[in-house]
Amino acid sequence: MDLTVKKDFKCLNGEIFIPPDKSLSHRAIILSSIAKGRSVIKNFSKGKDPFSSLIVCKNLGVNIEEKDGFLFVTSNGILSKPLCYLDCGNSGTTMRLMAGILAGQNFNSTLIGDESLSKRPMKRIIEPLSLMGAKVGSDNLHAPLNILGTELHGIDYESKIASAQVKSCVLLAGMFAEGTTTFKEICPSRNHTEIMLKNMGANISCKNNVTTIEKSELKPLEIDICGDISSAAYFIVAALVVPYSKIIIKNIGLNSTRCGIIKIVKQMGGNIEILERKDVCGEIVGDIKVEYSENMKGIEISGEIIPTLIDEIPVISVLATQCDGQTTIKGASDLRNKESDRITTTVSELKKLGANIEETSDGIIISGKTKLNGAVKVESYKDHRLAMSLYIAGLVCKKEILIKDFEWVNISFPEFVELFEKLK
Ligand code: S3P
Question: Are residues 352 and 214 in the same domain?
Fold first, then answer.
């Protein structure tokens, strides 16, 4: 389905609730599945990616029921041999986290993915899992992954990339391994797995980028999943760039390993404020107020902040086209390994709209402020985050734009257009 971004509004105004966090939804269903007892998950994401995790867990014998907006997950803490291939769809998080769990089971399993996921690198998990004694077959270090369940042993692993998926994979394998598993990362990636495991009673400790875990039995989970900062990012940028806009985004996860976008919007001179904060199951949650900000400035975005805003870089690039001066994004080469090569696809599509934007090997350079043109067709490359970022660009284009294959937003955010209509 192609979508035309209409110019039928003046500004964005009002209060919205953003749908539940995708990363937390994956972890809630996966960790509940290996906990003994009945877990209750309120506010599970309606995105296709978390649904892939749910179906994989069901195919491993876990009982999952939905009633009145709650998911009830009943498990005896032990998974059963699947009778089919475990289909992770488009979801890297499903494949990489489940590989960690399945490596230490007493049965064999096969994880498959769609065309995009089958092109994404799996060496980053196969390598540490193999060091733990795992037996993972692959298609030249890509999915499908054939996992021969076996006994694992703990390792001391130092990862060269700051990836929460790799970290979570190793920690989850560590839950089924003999001895202690230690994971060290070059700089902090999102830590939802660690927080949730700790809340569920795992034997886990974290200090200075080093996490240690031992075999543990998990207690069932009770969680109310907060709004997704990565989905809120599109609304934050839209309100900053569309004149006269003022919105409040309610109940958003503000974990410091996720909200680099808030820091950089402040540095760029954007009008953004956190209204209230509370602790929900170890995660910080709050409301965000954002207003149109006319005089934002380009900045350099690099170093330790990159993993905390990795999924927001396409929409931050849109924002940078509306800032005065140069924005330089560096040290983000892993963007090339996402649902599309997000360095190349973001640059090529924003260029079509008239942006002054160039790619580098590990990032993007944008010069602004540019009045974007429109009256063109852009590609989403079947990448949900690129599709939504282009929609935001479309809001400030002189003319309408057409985005190809817009239905891919359903991967993380099926409610996207409906929520925008509410604010118009
Ligand atoms: C995710 C981690 C990030 C992120 C992805 C979700 C997660 O990937 O890009 O959208 O839920 O753990 P990496 O761990 O590969 O950086």
Answer: no
275 burial (CB, 10 Å; 0-12 / 13-18 / 19+) is exposed
Give residue 338 CA to ligand 1 midpoint distance, Å.
Answer: 9
Query: Is 353 found in the same domain as 407?
Result: yes
Per-residue burial over 361-394, b if 16 or more Cβ lie within 10 Å, else e, is ebbbbbbbbbebebeeebbbbbbbbbbbbbbbbb
Q: How many domains does the chain have?
A: 2
> 165: Cβ below 6 Å to ligand 1?
yes
Among candidate residues 199, 224, 249, the one where a domain is terminated: 224
Q: From the CB of 311, is ligand 1 less than 6 Å away? A: yes
Predicted confidence (pLDDT) per residue in 289-335, tens digit: 999 999 999 999 999 999 999 999 999 999 999 999 999 999 999 99
- Whole-number Å distance, alpha carbon 308 to ligand 1 midpoint, is 10
- Read off the pLDDT of residues 257-275 as tens digits, 9 standing for 90 and up: 999 999 999 999 999 999 9
> What is the Å distance from ligand 1's center to 384 Cα?
14
Q: Which residues are catalytic?
A: 311
Query: Is residue 276 pLDDT above 90, yes or no?
Result: no
Task: Say whether both 168 and 295 belong to one domain.
Answer: no
Residue 149 and residue 10 share a domain: no
Q: Which of 170, 191, 224 represents a domain boundary (last residue)?
A: 224
Kindly state the average pLDDT of the residues 399-403: 98
Ligand 1: residue of 21, 22, 23 to mutate (most ligand atoms within 8 A of CB) is 23
- Does the CB atom of residue 190 touch ligand 1 within 6 A? yes
Name 317's Cβ contacts closer than 8 Å, sequence gap at least 6. 327, 329, 346, 347, 350, 355, 357, 364, 366, 389
Q: Is 60 in the pocket of ligand 1 (CB under 6 A)?
A: no
* Domain that residue 337 falls in: 3-20+226-423
Does ligand 1 have an atom closer than 6 angstroms to the CB of 164? yes
Of 281, 277, 323, 333, residue with least CA distance to 299: 323
Does residue 255 line the site of ligand 1, with CB under 6 A? no
**What CATH number is given to the structural domain containing 243?**
3.65.10.10
**Ligand 1 centroid from CA 70, angstroms:** 25
Are residues 7 and 35 both part of a single domain? Answer: no
